[in-house]
Predict the structure.
Amino acid sequence: MSRDAVLIESVEATALALGVELRVVSEREAVHEQWPSAVLRLVGPDLVGRVQPFGPQPATFVIGFDQQALLRASTELSAPVILLPEGNRRLAELLTDDGPGPGAGVVVALAAASGGLGVSTLGVALAARAAESGRRAVVVDLGRGGGVDLLFGAERLPGATWDDLYATSGEVGDLSRHLVTVDGVQVLARGRREGHEPDRTAVEAVLRSLVRSHDVVVVDAGDGARLPWAGRQAQPLLVVGADVYSVAAARGRSDLVPSGVVVRRGRGREIPAGEVARALGWPLVGVIRDDPRVPRLASVGISVGSRGARRLARDTKRLLERVVEFKAGRDA
């Protein structure tokens, strides 16, 4: 609500990038008609006097570029302030309500306690199960070595990678039409160019967009160094081998605070999953067994998340159910 053309253009540009529809009003009749039923009210300092008779209202913010004018308007209206351009992120959150609430997608961030645990394979299979259940799913490759696209057999398919998005900042529109899609799963893979490593700002901006457009976002965080970049909305899961070495390595990861552990079992990894979880003091979320079909599928360019890897498919289906239950419980 404003007559300030520069302010209106700035707010509309953010809304357009996010795919959010706005209604701009300034005339008295339109204000009286729209104000009571609006789910979000953004008021420029120039029109605060026009809405003051309504009294304090929830979801009302004074927005603009002049800090002193905003403070005066905030006092008159008893409403919080959004100072632009510094407040663009807050504006985007309000326009999309994309915090870690009930409307947000499920974000699962996977990290390995030690090497050789198949975190990338697990991420691909988990996203495949989400797609099979009718959910919009995407895998984001943040591992040091990359290679998620290889596990999909998608390394030659055209689509955006971190080569294209490594310098992203601010608010990003819907990326889904730009990403590679394999078997219903979208893929944001590491690029092949030197010097195109995404920083935390780029990762956070891209993930905010993906959470809005997808139901399940699986982040392959590799060794876990970038696990915090997945944000507060993520469920960080530590993948731990059911062997003494991997459990010891997990105990030494004081930098990680996962919401649970996923135990990898197989030859040489035979400690009971419950004992692994108790030793670490974190909840057991799932158990993933070795599947001999996985390397065969990868060798012929078939996604390791396909139903051809039946054992892995069963295990990741159960894991997905647990992850979705956790999100529902947190939202309740």
In short: The chain has two domains: 5-96, 106-331. The domain at 106-331 is CATH 3.40.50.300 (Rossmann fold). The chain is about 40% helix and 15% strand. The radius of gyration is 23 Å.
